[in-house]
Amino acid sequence: MSRFTLHALSVGIAAASLSLSAHAATEITWWHSMGGELGERLSAIAEDFNASQDEFTIAPSYRGEYEEAMVNTIAAFRAGEQPHIVQIYEVGTGTMMAAQGAIYPVYELMEEHGNNFDPSDYLSVVTGYYTDTDGNMLSMPFNSSTPILYYNKAVFEAAGLDPETPPTTWQEMGEMSQQILDEDAASCGFTLAYAANWVGLENFSAMHNLPVGTLENGFGGLETEFTFNGDVQARFWDQLKEWSDSGAYMYAGPANGPDAAPAFYSSDCAMYMNSSASRADVLANSDFDVGFGMLPYYDDVDGAPQNSIIGGATLWVLSGHEENEYTGVAEFLQFLSSPEVQAEWHQGTGYLPITTAAYELSQEQGYYDENPGADIAIEQINLNEPTENSKGLRFGNYPQVRMVLDEEFQNVLSGDKSGQEALDDAAERGNQILRDFEAANS
Amino acid sequence: MQTKRSTYQSRWLPFFLLAPQLAITLVFFIWPASQAVKSSFERTDPFGFKTTFIGLENYARILADPSYLNALGRTAIFAVSVTVLSMGTALLLAVCVNRVMRTSRFYTTLLVWPYAVAPVVAGVLWWFLFNPTIGLLPHLLDWFGINWNHRVSGTQAMILITIAAAWKQISYNFLFFLAGLQSVPPSLIEAAAIDGASPFKRFWTIVFPLLSPTTFFLLIININYVMFETFGVIDATTGGGPGQATMTLVYKVYTDGVAGLNIGSSSAQSVLLMGIVIVLTFIQFRFVERRVNY
After folding, report:
1. What residues pair up with B158 in beta bridges, in sequence order?
2. How confident is the model at residue A139 (pLDDT cuts 50, 70, 90)?
3. At A220, is the secondary structure helix, strand, or coil?
4. pTM value?
5. CA distance B166 to B79
6. Are strands A147-152 and A140-145 parallel, antiparallel or unpaired?
């Protein structure tokens, strides 16, 4: 390339970037993992914010599923290309909290750049998950949900079941699934998203008031150890294996169970457990009447049903940007927690409201009366005063532990291990991962 | 005296001409590889704030880890079955096409096509075909009384990735075998035919030995392919599962390093993998090549 063309090129690039910055407001990047319906609603929020003022522009960018987005963010941080705001799922919380040089805690950001920020506006069941031991909010809750039961009323009717009564216990779950199979109303009774982790282990344990790990499920410190290998959990995994063999239950794959939603939409499976935030997708994709219910429990276990725990994600602010850009970030987070924005997001997606004001506004608007089932998630999460077993979990490197759980659960389904053996092995392997995290972060 | 030495007008010209290739090798191979060696001796947190030198601990842990030894075994099974399947099928197809007079170009084009498909895309195609819920093949297998669910059955998952990985490599092997077959002098085969050798005997005693350089070359290429390039196929179909049944060495490097953010262990594994492939290639050259007639 001649010197002239090089020169011309650099002038061109400079001119282009100048003309951009002359018109555009300060850009704030926001990486997220909301695909499909949720992604569109998220973009709408960003557009509303951009239209509400002309100093800052929020630029949302989809970075893949939660696991991928977190890995991408870490890689971007190491390369100095990190976004301002990133959406990280709840199991990544332990890792993010430990990365003190990488994050700009939300409470500090709001103190330094925001105004009118009052942490007590937020629902404590939600924020409790994301506060440090001194009660400071480290990240901004954005989309929190809890798993619920969805069921196909048409299949229930065809099987001779009452379409208004979903199963409440696992015993009923087994009986109803068998009846659905016997009557040939569907080819499987139920399927689960997050079968080996969020739904089939973490929420299962919380609903039965059983610990997942020591030290208050990891909230108490890095020296925690896993205790999810109790006999109730083992009994449940063995039962899932039995049901998987009989066809009452269909395994939908590891992680979030990619086959679960299609099997439910196509009426192959009559029931399906997934995040309350799948509501928008479920309603958009099913051509039958959908019923909603709470997660089942074993009624012969003391303390069940306790309450379910949340999942979903929060927004973390990353360090290493200009001061004035953080003013924009603070303004945006303020905008995001306003009752109107929150209520609309909550009603449109099925995620929990994060402020008391948004919940009350939704009640005033008559949303729960018009949409029966929409408040099941909120009821379920507030079923009882949370105990130290049911307020959430916080483990370092937990994404890795979830992969171990998937593997061990598959070993149960293939008949290689019993539920107890698989959970014991998972606990042992998981503890090793926790020790690695402890060593790398202390 | 005639030498192979070329003459350049400037002493620097040959270096200049080599420079782009050297730069690429340096930036994309030597530098990352040396980084991997470096971080295999370290323990670091995901964000890279704190890095501690821990010597050989990563290696010691890996070699004592049953799941690594399991991956090693899986990789061996996978490598042998993919190589045998893809080379066997490719040779059969090449022999068939070589006998066709008029339309051989047409068949060649069709058979080479799969090679143009990216591994991940190929993986997604197989994922759809074999999907236990919506796939076509499980539906057909059901008629034969076979219950296909590779999400649960480790053997079926291994069969799936073997077929998917071999399918992609058949085209490449086919092309080389066909070229090899076409360079076999017809006079040799005709002479044997006149002596009364059956087609089968002609193949085994004349054609196959003459193909041995091609076969040897493909053997090395295929082993390398299985070791490194099957990542996309595995990621798109089984993701290493169920229960690590299809966790090969290269996929384990990915799950531990990229998904699990355990960079130290992952680096140590990639160094070991590099060592394994170097040793394998060395053995092949040292012992197998002796039996090759050029």
Report:
1. none
2. very high
3. coil
4. 0.82
5. 10
6. unpaired
The interface predicted TM-score (ipTM) is 0.73
Name which of B47, B260, B262 is nearest A77 (Cβ-Cβ). Answer: B47
**Record: contact A407-B242, CB cut-off 8 A:** yes
The CA-based angle A56-A58-A62, given to 5 degrees, is 165
Strand partners, A114: none
Give the H/E segment covering residue A98: helix A93-98
Are A364 and A134 in contact by the 8 Å Cβ rule? The answer is: no
User: Testing the interface with B: which of A316, A410, A437, A441 to mutate, by most B Cβ within 10 A?
Assistant: A410
Whether A67 has its CB under 8 Å from any CB of chain B: the answer is: yes
Cα separation, B76 vs B280, whole angstroms? 12
- Ramachandran sector of residue A110 (left: φ over 0; alpha: ψ -120 to 50; beta: rest): alpha
Q: Which residue of chain B is at minimal alpha-carbon distance from A259?
A: B133
Nearest to B260 among A400, A413, A414 (CB): A400
User: Dihedral of CA A63/A67/A73/A78: which sign?
Assistant: negative
Whether cis (ω within 30° of 0) applies to the bond prior to A305 is yes
pLDDT class of B216 with cuts at 50, 70, 90: confident
B223, B80 contact by CB (below 8 A): no
Say how far apart CA B250 and CA B236 lie, in whole Å: 14
Q: Give helix then strand counts, H and E, for chain A.
A: 20, 10
Q: CA B230, CA B253: separation in Å to the nearest integer?
A: 13
